[in-house]
Fold:
Amino acid sequence: MVIKIKEPMPSAAVAQQVLELIHTAYADQTEEFELEVPALTFTQDSLRQTIEDETLAVANLGRGLVGSVLYTVQGDDLFLHTLAVSPDHRRRGIAVALIEHVCACARLGGYRRVTLNAPANHKENHRLFERLGFREIPTNTWDAYKTPTYRRMAKNL
Structure:
């Protein structure tokens, strides 16, 4: 199995494919969260605008889109978000390949670290990020919530 990672040019067709992937990948999480899942608020237009403003990397197996991630510059860091892997293709190294792609781009760009926000109740994701060298960093929580809704994590490069 060869996972191909590429950064496609922004287009309505790409936005539609990635939007469908995100909605499929995050569909099983809507009941787990007490809060709105930010990835599910994308529309085709808002996602296309995000892709134009940030960087999108996609993972393909053969001709099929099986994963995607968005990332953007935040100060001296690259911020990774909206990591999505098709439920039918999980546990095959696709998320790892996408995360490693972002880390490689960060190194090439001279950034000092990659940061992300992992939902607080996704322990499995925390273990994956920790295995890849991410560690929790302090963050502020909103006063409206008694407990943190996410873990801010960073990997120093």
Summary: The chain has one domain: 3-156.
